[in-house]
């Protein structure tokens, strides 16, 4: 069932996968206040939603995932430095322990690039484009600090210094995107990827996500130590016994998340 969070953002759970959609295609899904409020509400909804194992963030239509900030609104409000809670940045100003996927259905520029960057995985339509355009409009992109961890530093520098877009194929080539698919297959292919994740043991999935980010913030030795702490309760869980038992009995595991 689809639920309207604001006039321009919807939340829908399909087979355990939550779809958070910016529905403002006439404005290229730009980040107006109503969009930002809806994204915050949808993020909190997903974190608390036991029926949803994976979040997919996308935009309505086939032109834009999100073209970034609403420049008209910024001009009218004379926005200078966006406040810390300007919009949800997964892993920075809001913790989202479950996996997230950006389904990029068109341009992902500026704040739209931010939203895709902060998701754990990215599936892009063939016609998608990615750019950090702030240098072209005199704005800033402090949120791009993790970019040189996601892609090679020289690629990150080119993206940030030129403001020029990358097409989907190039974005996949440099590691910014996991899959590139035909536009008409974007939803189905993203749903299928999310289902494969959701079928796994939930405690293991959450611990795997935390482990993957350790190298961005710790030395190698510290990462190993913290990973041991992260995984200890997983090893001790009921699900850790259920997995081998299901393999032995030649049946599908029944995960309890505990």
Automatic annotation (TrEMBL):
Q: Does the keyword Nuclease apply?
A: no
Q: Does the keyword Secreted apply?
A: no
Citing just one GO molecular function, the answer is:
enoyl-CoA hydratase activity
InterPro entries named in the record: ClpP/crotonase-like_dom_sf, Enoyl-CoA_hydra/iso, Enoyl-CoA_hydra_C
Q: Which GO terms describe its biological process?
A: fatty acid beta-oxidation
Q: Which organism is it from?
A: Pseudonocardia halophobica
User: In which family does this protein belong, per the annotation?
Assistant: Belongs to the enoyl-CoA hydratase/isomerase family.
Q: What is the official name of this protein in its record?
A: Enoyl-CoA dehydratase/isomerase
Note the Pfam families from the entry: ECH_1 (PF00378)
| Reaction(s) the record says it catalyses | a (3S)-3-hydroxyacyl-CoA = a (2E)-enoyl-CoA + H2O; a 4-saturated-(3S)-3-hydroxyacyl-CoA = a (3E)-enoyl-CoA + H2O
Which keywords, in A-to-Z order, does the entry hold? Lyase
Q: Which domain of life is it from?
A: Bacteria
Q: Where is this region: Disordered?
A: 239-258
